Amino acid sequence: MSVALILGAGSRIGKGLAYKFSENGCKVALGSRSGSSEKPEGSISIQVDVTKPAEVKAAFAKSEQEFGAPVNIVVYNVAAWSPLPEKGAPFSLPTEQFVADMNAGALGAYTALQESVAAFKRVAADKPKVFIATSNLLGVSPPSIPMFALGNQKHNLAYFIQAGNKAYSGADFRFYLASQVSSEGSNPNGELSPEAHGTVYWNLIQRAEKGGWDIRFIKDGSILVEN
C-alpha cells in the first residue's frame, strides 16, 4: 500500500489526483488551507497552511498516523499569483505580498521536501518514493514580467527538483517538475486537465526508471518533452 499526500488539494487538479491515486489502491491525504470537503472513500482531509513549517510537518505525521506507514508519494500543488500594481514594473509588488506569494508557492515546498526525504528513508524498498511539483512553463522559461511573482515561485521549484535529483541520484528517490502544455509545447491557455494530470502523475509514480526531471505533457496525458 502506498500513502500519498497532496499539498494544495483544491477542487480541480488536487481532487483529480486524489481520485486517481485512490482508484489505484493508494491511501490519500488531501492537504489544503480550508480542508477538502469532497474526497475519495478511505482518504483523509488535513487542514494545512504550507507557509507554516510546523503545519506541513504535522500533515506528514498525521498521514503516517492514520495510515500506519510513512508517506511515499508527495504532490506539491500550490501556487500564488498577485497582479502587479504597476503594469510592466516587476518590482512594484509590495514586498510583503511578494514574500507571501513566495512562501506559499515555493518556500513551503522546501519543508515538504525535507519531510519527504525523511519519510522516504523509512519507506519499504519495494514502494515508489516520488515527489512531484505541479508547475508550468514559467519554471523553465525566461522571466515573464506580468507573472513575475509566480515565475519566481516556479523557478524556485525547478531548482529544488533539480537539486533533489542530483543529491539523491544514487538513491531510489525521484523528483519531478510536471507542467501541462499545448500540443505545440506552449501555454495550454486555460485548458488544464485534471484527468491528464492524474494520468501523467500516476505513470511517473509507476515508472521503473527515473527518467528526466522536467516533464511537459499534453491534454491527452502523453508526455511531449522530457529533460
TrEMBL record:
Record-linked InterPro entries: NAD(P)-bd_dom_sf (IPR036291), SDR_fam (IPR002347)
Alphabetized Pfam families for the sequence: adh_short
Keywords: Oxidoreductase
MF terms (GO), sorted A to Z: oxidoreductase activity
Keyword Oxidoreductase set for record: yes
Gene3D superfamilies recorded: NAD(P)-binding Rossmann-like Domain
Top-level taxon in the UniProt lineage: Eukaryota
Family listed: Belongs to the short-chain dehydrogenases/reductases (SDR) family.
Protein name: Ketoreductase (KR) domain-containing protein
Organism annotation: Serendipita vermifera MAFF 305830
Organism lineage: Eukaryota, Fungi, Dikarya, Basidiomycota, Agaricomycotina
